[in-house]
Every structure is written in structure tokens, then in C-alpha cells.
Amino acid sequence: MFKKGTRIRHLLNFWPPFLFTGIRIVELSEDFRRCRVELKNRPWTKNANGTQFGGSLFAMTDPIYALMLMGILGKRYHVWDRAAKIHFEKPGVGKVYAEFQVTEQMLAEIEGATVAGEKHLPQIVTDVKDGKGDLVAKIERTLYIRLKRRYRPGV
């Protein structure tokens, strides 16, 4: 399933939590290293104040880093979201977006921290911005990454 980023992108865009909430993955690189997600402003994505609903802002970032890392690291690793929190900076008006990138440094840290079979809990911050590039929200996400039992040394 995680062989091609474009295939995963298309599948996720038809996934009901994205499809029915106005969330769309507009870019997912073949190597899973870059992703861009947009949230359209629809009547069902607005809050009582007429701006983007905070739950939708949060949801647009929910599975992205975990899925990207699953695509890169392959079937040897468990990769899950462990915790997350959102900091609202200004109301989201109109279409908003978030960009995600997995760097060589991130991968080196993951591999170094998990090589002996230990869990790794990296914290990643994602900015959600509006069409002008202004910061709307910061989402802090903690991932859980660990070699699956059968791939751990000494098991």
C-alpha cells in the first residue's frame, strides 16, 4: 500500500474524514518526504464565528507525519500518533494549508534512537497558514516510533 505517494494521496482524498470535511492532500511526493494539505472554507467547516473550525484545522494534520514515515520507514516500524495539541494564533479565514517535510536529520534521529529496539517519541510542529501566508495555528504532535518486535535486536 505504501509504495507510491501519489496512490496514497488519492486514497486519502476519498477517505471520509477528509472527503466530507473539505480537507485535501494536494501534494504528496513519491518518496513521502513532502506533503501539502489544504482545507477549503465550506459552510460545514466554519465555526460559530464564521471562521475555520478548530477541529478541522487539527484534523488536516492528524495522520500526515505518521503516514509519511510509514511510507519511508516501511513495514519494520510501528509509527503512531501519540499526542497532539493545537495553539490558535489567529482566525482562519478562507482556504488554509499546512506543509510537511521529512528531512534527513529527522530520519537519522529516528534510526539512531530506535536501532536498539527502544521507542522514540519525536515532537513535530506543523504550521497552518492562510492564503496570505499568515500563521493561523501551530499543531504540536508527538509520534511513537519503534521497531516491530520481530525486527528488534536480541528478540
UniProtKB/TrEMBL annotation:
Species of the source: Gallaecimonas xiamenensis 3-C-1
Q: What is this protein called?
A: Translation elongation factor P (EF-P)
Origin organism lineage:
Bacteria, Pseudomonadati, Pseudomonadota, Gammaproteobacteria, Enterobacterales
Superkingdom, natural source: Bacteria
